[in-house]
Amino acid sequence: MAAHDASRVPAWVEPMLAKADGGRLRSGAEWAYEYKLDGYRAAMRIAPDGTTVLTSRNNIDFTAEFADLAGVLAPALDGQAAYLDGEVVVYGDDGRIDFELMQERRGRWVRHQGAPKSTGFDDVPVRFLAFDLLQLGERDLLKEPYDERRRLLAGLPMPDPYRVSVVRAVTFDELAADRRTPADFLAHAASAGYEGVVAKLRSSAYVPGQRPDSWLKHPLIRTQEVIVCGWRPGQRSFTGTLGGLLLGAHDPATGDLVYIGDVGTGFSQAARAELMARLQPLERRTHPFVTTPPREDTVRARWVEPRLVGEIVYRQFTRGGRVRHTAWRGLRADKEPDDVLAPRAGTPEPAAPPPEPIGQKITVQAGNRRLTLSNLDKVLYPADGFTKGEVINYYSRIAPVLLPHLAGRPVTFIRYPDGVDGEKWFGKNVPQGAPSWLRTVRLPSTGSRGGGGTIDYPLLDDLPALVWSANMAALELHVPQWTVKAGTRQPPDRLVFDLDPGPGTSVVDCARVAERLHDVLVADGLTPYAKTSGSKGMQLYCGIRTENASAPSAYAKRLAQRLARETPDSVTAVMAKAQRGGRVFIDWSQNNPAKTTVAPYSLRGRDHPTVSTPVTWDEVRACRHVNHLTFTADEVLDRVEEYGDLLAGLAESAAPLP
């Protein structure tokens, strides 16, 4: 990556990314800590002659947009090339980093790109905060330990610290010498308005394009009580139900009811139905606020009397009086609307304190239920140190996209009470000690072990039920391709192909078979969706309409046999394991009403906390290595934040089974 001549800037490097720490801020002498910044990730690449290029996380050229930053460091480098990784930020009048101001500035830049070069942004100055150094002179630093890279970075002169500076970093030992802890550093980050803290392993190299365990981010979670003042009907897969809520709170200074934004994620299907039932009797013709909300926020709005109080998670309350990055937590029957005050703009709410420990147990609020959780520090994935607390945190955060795929489907658990290296337990019947509020359904037993009896299956249709199952170390959740309604099994609504790689093959070979199946299914009028199994293979799904419970298996078997005839050396439709060497087995039998398939977004009981992950067809076609279609819990949370639920259109795309 070194520059070969005076005017050539170092080659761009895909940035290393931080993995979520699962709610557990790491502690120990091997760690250093930095503030998590709320700006635009950027690389500052400087040639020996001072030529400077700023590029985004996706290698988009930022240089013209942030022209004030170009050339600032060149005089201090004495003709050396350099590559700094960092963040471009904007500060508000209160001295805090203000992402809203950055967005406003960006909007102006986009609108004025064609304007004369004299058009400036002096009223919103930017600052580059560096947190890593990847090259200095001819020296490539990627393989150097974090401590050495930071030492060299801290040694760089900063000619204009108002424009370019270094993010503060502190080691565990430095904190300890001041009689402080990482939790104290986190508390300071919260009070200073930072997004959170990043813990970095001091011995770690810089790994381009990866999200390893050596950088762990600990974001600050903020909650806010809100008054439900309106709602929007759902669209696409949520047609006919609630799509989102319009929120209000009382201005702390005047007491007026003001609009503070909306929330459209975090609802289970049951919560959407419950809210609809509660809101419809409260409908009114006009909004209840002292001033009219922005028109773009109120398209299709249905207004209600401001009587219901709920709670949301949010990341920021803007100067414009809006909550940002919201998710629904549930109704608060213990609060009155008069008690709900809006937060003050620019002053972040402190991180929610951890629940009070009770011996080895803690009591938490999940939606509208209080649950007692135990042994949160117990390691369930020894290879990663991934604990039960992190499992519960993952399922809590993935709930908005996972719950719709569990709704109305009886769940079979695979539990790992002693971790993935211990004995596993299959469970269909609701275990003893299950909470009385857990929804269940009694169905006739099926399969070879049926014996004519019945099974009481759990139905996980809200956050409390999901947290309860995670607390039992139910890592894997498996569901059938049909739902229940009023206690009765409905016809299948999903078609599934389980692609299982035999010895000598991998998910790469499954991807090639998936491409072929995709074309056949589309030709038959179906819309296929793909996901990884979270283990070695993958599954394809199609939404279907049929009244014949045996028809999906028959159709899937025909297609599997067709592909096996066409390419017998690479595909088999025969279950016998002796037939699978060097082939991908297309398991059509999972469409049998007695069979289940791992649910989308479920963890798997493997060495690492991998997840059955929805993927795009572009990703399937591009797969050339096992790592391309292998995702861990933290990576899936980031994917959902970026892409949403890639299976969201499955039900909406349902077509008659050919």
TrEMBL record:
GO biological process: DNA recombination; DNA repair
Cofactor: Mn(2+)
Chemical reaction(s) catalysed: ATP + (deoxyribonucleotide)n-3'-hydroxyl + 5'-phospho-(deoxyribonucleotide)m = (deoxyribonucleotide)n+m + AMP + diphosphate
CDD domains: Adenylation_DNA_ligase_LigD_LigC, MtLigD_Pol_like, OBF_DNA_ligase_LigD
Domain ATP-dependent DNA ligase family profile: 119-251
Top-rank EC class of the record's enzyme: ligase
Region described as Disordered: 334-359
PROSITE patterns, per database record: DNA_LIGASE_A3
GO molecular function, one term: metal ion binding
Record EC number: 6.5.1.1
Keyword presence, Manganese: yes
Keywords for this protein: ATP-binding, DNA damage, DNA recombination, DNA repair, DNA-binding, DNA-directed DNA polymerase, Exonuclease, Hydrolase, Ligase, Manganese, Metal-binding, Multifunctional enzyme, Nuclease, Nucleotide-binding, Nucleotidyltransferase, Transferase
Family: In the N-terminal section; belongs to the LigD polymerase family. In the C-terminal section; belongs to the ATP-dependent DNA ligase family.
Protein's recorded name: DNA ligase (ATP)
Organism field: Amycolatopsis mongoliensis
Gene: ligD
